[in-house]
Amino acid sequence: MSSIVDSIEKEMKRRAYEAAMAILRSYQGQVHEAMEEFQGAFAAFIAPTMNLFRTGKGRRGKRMSGSMPI
């Protein structure tokens, strides 16, 4: 009888492990997707910002160019 109980417990643990792995794989996919979205948004933000400062059209660029009274 204990053999049947052990077998059932082992099967329950195996199924719980499989379910946990499926949840973790799903979570991992969501994390990767969020990272890609963040990288895209960051690149979309940083490129124009860097161009503003490189060309001197940003607020800081104007101040640094001497337009601010000393």
Give structural attributes:
mainly alpha, 70 residues
Please sum up the structure shown.
This protein has 70 residues and is mainly α. 90% of the residues lie in helices and 0% in strands.
Write up this protein.
This protein has 2 helices and no strands. The protein has one domain. It is rod-shaped and about 80 Å long. Helix content is 90%, strand content 0%.
Strand content: under 5%
- Summed up, the domain count is 1
Q: What is the rounded Rg?
A: 28 Å
Number of strands: 0
Largest sheet: none
- What order do the SSEs take from the amino end to the carboxyl end, as H and E? HH
Output the number of helix runs.
2
- Secondary structure category: mainly alpha
The low-confidence runs, each spanning 5 or more residues with pLDDT under 50, are: none
User: In angstroms, what separates the terminal alpha carbons?
Assistant: 92 Å
Q: Which geometry do the CA atoms define?
A: rod-shaped
Helix content: over 70%
What is the averaged pLDDT score? 83
Topology diagram in text:
Elements: H1 2-55, H2 59-67
